[in-house]
Design goal:
The structure holds 2 protein chains of 2 kinds.
Chain A: H1 6-33, H2 35-41, H3 55-74, H4 84-94, H5 103-106, H6 121-124
Chain B: H1 2-10, H2 12-19, H3 21-27, H4 29-33, H5 47-63, H6 66-80, H7 85-98, H8 102-118, H9 123-135, H10 139-152, H11 157-169, H12 173-186, H13 191-207, H14 214-230, H15 235-251, H16 255-264, H17 275-295, H18 303-321
Helix pairs in contact in B: 2-5, 5-6, 5-7, 6-7, 7-9, 8-9, 9-10, 10-11, 11-12, 12-13, 13-14, 13-15, 14-15, 15-17, 15-18, 17-18
Classes of the chains: A mainly alpha, B mainly alpha.
């Protein structure tokens, strides 16, 4: 599913959810205002009025929640790699041969300033360098 | 002397960075001077800011912009005081860079000695002293000082890698390899150090007069394999894997000699890989390198590395075509 559908789907789901909530609220007010109608609607008088929530409201709630979930998941950012090797490969390429262990080969503590610094240390420490 | 100063100007990257330095320094003057932080009015000072000053100092010195470098070091001294160990190291670096001749460098070296006599565990200054000794091409003195430093702080991996490079420059391969192994004990997932160790092992084989040391070559190949295992599509690792496996295949074309060595190395060492395994690894490295050179620099690889990989591939395919 394309990611541009994420926001409309979520908004629509939220709209449906609020509509379902409002419907449930209206339904309960209706029952408390006219208690005799519930006895007519449901066959047994002992059952609580909440049990007789119409099927369409329940369905609307469930569908809207599913829509919100799907919308949020689809619109989520691209997942970050959690495998070391994938992450390392990405870091290596994005920093152009940098990476957190590049400091071990640049060795700023031992740098010979009179000759110049060997590799691109100015930009190398950008992404979470371990050795500064 | 004139050569070293022209080298300092050569890097265009450092130059462009230092050109931005005056603007940067002007922009951040207010943050550095306020001594008492006032909530909501002054910016909270961050570690990044001071790291930035350090980097700026280095690139200014490298580009030969001594004035801006002086401004940086003054700010750092204002903030942390001249007795801070790290600042002492940076100040030494600045003095080294602006020193006119070898006599001035000798004076700086004497200063370092005095500081270290007072406080022998001042690591940044000790490192500067070692770097200066190296710069004055007194490599053996540098090695002695570095081993002394490592005795007091055996987990300093930066020092271990430096020592390894120093030993390598003296062609003392077993020592260089040992140092890199020490680094790997502290940072076992450093893929570039694994590759580096593979390279040093390979160099030790190629520079020795013996025909081919199969065990060392196999060890080098394992190191390159490990670096690839730790880092996806690691060009340096695949390059090394191809070099070592090529050499292993040419040195041991059939399995008979390798099989003999399996029996001989029975004292806990890893056996020699079989020729079939080496051939498979060689094929894998070749195909991977071919793939990576096609991607070229679009994926962020170093251009020089890609060119080198292409050359290696061309060299290895030519004999087959003939």
């Amino acid at each position: 599913m394309p990611s541009y559908l994420s926001r409309p789907l979520t908004v629509l789901g939220l709209l449906f959810l609020s509509h379902a909530c409002y419907s449930a609220y209206e339904h309960s007010t209706l029952l408390t205002t006219f208690p005799q109608s519930s006895t007519i609607a449901s066959t047994s008088t002992s059952s609580p009025p909440t049990a007789s929530l119409p099927l369409d409201i329940s369905l609307e709630t469930i569908i809207s929640v599913v829509m919100i979930c799907v919308g949020l998941v689809v619109g989520a950012e691209e997942l970050k790699p959690i495998t070391w090797r994938v992450w390392a490969g990405k870091v290596e390429r994005e920093s152009g041969g940098g990476g957190p262990f590049q400091g071990l080969e640049d060795r700023l503590g031992f740098v010979d300033i009179r000759v110049g610094i060997i590799s691109s240390m100015e930009i190398g420490f950008g992404n979470g360098g371990l050795l500064v | 002397m004139s050569l070293s100063s022209s080298l300092r100007h050569s890097n265009s990257e450092a130059l462009s960075l230092s050109q931005q330095s005056t603007q940067y320094l002007q922009k951040h003057t207010s943050t550095g001077t306020s001594t008492i932080p006032v909530p909501f009015i002054s910016y909270p000072e961050s570690t990044e800011l001071w790291l930035m000053y350090e980097k700026l100092l280095l690139s200014c010195l490298r580009a030969g912009d001594d004035k801006a470098a002086h401004l940086c070091i003054e700010k750092l001294i204002d903030r942390f005081g001249a007795t801070n160990e790290r600042i002492m190291g940076l100040r030494g670096l600045y003095q080294e860079a602006v020193a006119k001749d070898d006599a001035a460098l000798g004076r700086i070296l004497k200063e370092y000695d005095e500081v270290l006599a007072e406080d022998p565990v001042n690591t940044p200054v000790a490192k500067r002293r070692i770097a200066l000794l190296q710069s004055l091409s007194r490599t053996t003195d540098a090695i002695d000082a570095l081993t002394e430093l490592l005795e007091s702080s055996p987990t300093d991996i930066e020092a271990w890698t430096e020592l390894s490079d120093l030993y390598l420059s003296q062609s003392l391969f077993p020592q260089a390899i040992f140092c890199l192994e020490e680094v790997l004990l502290v940072a076992p997932s450093a893929w570039n150090i694994h590759a580096r160790l593979g390279e040093v092992l390979y160099i030790s084989v190629t520079s020795s007069n013996e025909s081919a040391d199969g065990k060392t070559l196999a060890e080098a190949m394992r190191r390159f394999c490990r670096s690839i295992e730790l880092c996806d599509d690691y060009l340096r690792g695949y390059y090394g894997l191809k070099m070592t496996s090529d050499r292993l295949l040419s040195a041991f074309p059939d399995n008979s000699k390798a099989a003999g060595q399996i029996l001989s190395t029975d004292n806990g060492e890893l056996p020699m890989p079989s020729t079939a395994t080496v051939r498979k690894l060689n094929e894998k490295a070749t195909s991977k390198l071919a793939e990576m050179t096609r991607w070229t620099t679009a994926r962020g690889y170093n251009y020089a590395e890609v060119v080198a990989a292409k050359e290696l591939l061309d060299k290895s395919t030519q004999p087959k075509q003939r």
